[in-house]
Amino acid sequence: MKRKTKIILAVCIAFVCILTAGGFAAYFSVHRLYSAANYVSNSEVEAQRAEWEAQQREKLLDAGTEGASVTSGRISTGGTAQEEADAETSDDAGAEEESEEEDAEDDEVRKEERNSQKENEDAGEIAGDAANEKVSAAQRDKAASEETTAAEENDTDEEETTAAEKIFADADEESEKTGLVQNEELSALKQDAVISGAMEDQTESETETSIEDTSDSQKFSGEEAVVPEELTEYLTEESAATDGDVYNVLLIGVDRRDDSWAGNSDSMILLSINREKKQLSLISLMRDTYVEIPEIGMDKLNAAHAYGAGPLLVETVSQNFEIDVDRYVRVDFEGMINIIDRIGKMQISMTDDEVIVANDYIRAMCDSLDRDPEDYLIPEGGTIECDGMRAVAYARIRYVGNYDYQRTERQRLIMTNLIQELSDMNLFEIYDTALDILPLVTHNIPESEIWSLLLQATELFDYTIVQDRIPYDGLFENQKINEQDVLVPEWEETIERLKDTIY
Length: 503
Prior knowledge:
The protein has 503 residues and is an alpha+beta fold. Helices cover 57% and strands 16% of the residues. The termini are far apart.
C-alpha cells in the first residue's frame, strides 16, 4: 500500500513537472524561433535544435501527452528533465541516461542561444543608441541651423530698421535745415523786395522750391510741399474779387457787452486788395460820420450796425461811398484779444497818458472777462510788449491826443503789426492760425474765397500798405445834429479820392 501511494504521488508530481517543463520548453522554443526569424543562427545550432525537437516529440507521443503548443502563430514543443521521472517509473535506466545527455545538450543549446541573443540585443541596443544619437544630433543641428537663421534674420531686420531710422532721421534733419535756410532766404527776399514785384522774380531765381499756381499770379516759397493738402482743391480758384480786380472787405470791431443787441461798431476799417497795383489799403471809417442808413434814415455810421448788424452796415457803406462792399468780418473785444494772443505779441510805444487810459480799459475788460488785471496792467510809458489784452486796451484809447482821429491810427497800427506777424509765417502756419481764428469771428465770406485768399497770403503780405481815414482832412465839417456831434463829409470829393486810392 505504501509503495502504491508513492507510485501515485510520483506520477502526479511527474505530470505537474511535465506540464511546467512543457510551458518553459514552449517559451524557449518560441523565443528561439523568434530569434531565428530576426537573426542569422549557426547551422550546427539549427541541426541540434531539430534533432532535439524530434526526440521530444517521440517522448511525448510515447507518454500519450501532447507537448506541442501554438503561441502567437509560432509552433513550439516542450520537454524537460521531469521526463526522467517517467523513465524512473518504468525503470528504464537507458532512457534516463539518454535523457540526461539530451538535457545537457539542450542546456548547451539554450546557453548558446541566450549568448547569441544577448549579443544581438546588445548589438541592437548599440545600433539603436547610435541611431538615436544620430537622430538627436541631426535634430540638434537642425535646431541650431534654425536658430542661426532666425538670428541672422533678426540681425538683418535690425540692420534694416536701423538703416531706415537713420534715413528718416537724416531726412528730418535735412528738411529742418532746408526749412531754416528757406525761411532765412524768404525773409531776406521780403526785405529786399520792391513794390514792382521783385519778390516774385527773386523767389523764382533764388529759391528752387518755389512754384507757380494755375493762374500764374501766385508764388509760394518754402518746403517742397508748399500747399496744405486741404487747400489743393482751391488752387484752381480764380482770384477773389468784389469789384473788378479789387477785393473789398469791411473789418468791424464792435463794443457789445451782452447778446441783447448787435452793438455799435466802434472800429470800421475798409480792407481793399488791389492785385494790379499790388497794394493793400487800410482805410478807417470814423464812427461819427453822418450817413444815410437804408430804411432807417440819417444817423452816425456806427449806428447802422446797431440797427442791422453786418449786412446793414456793409450796405450803408456801399451806398454812401459808391463802392462795392458786401463782405465783412466782425469781432468783439474778447475775440480780438484771443486773436492777438494766437498770432503773437507786439511792441507798441505808449506815452504815460496813454498808459493811464489803457490801464482803465484793462481793468474794465478784466472785470467783464473775470481775469486778474494785475496780470496785464502797464507800469509806465515806453516801448511796451503787448499781448491781446494790452493791445486792445491801447486800440480803444479815445480821449488822449487827437481824440477819435488818433484812435483810428492806433487801430490801424494794431492791424499792420498783425500783418507783419503773419508775414513771418509759412503757408502751413498761416493755415493753422486761420483754423484757430475763424471760430472767433463772424463773417459772410464764402469758404472758397477764404482759402483762395489764404493761398495768396505770401504774395499779399508783400504788397504796399496804404493807410488813411474818412472823413479826409479838409473834406468834412463838424456839425451838431439832433444834439449829436457828427462829421459831415464833402461827398463828391471824398468818393473820388477813395476810389483813386483803392482802384
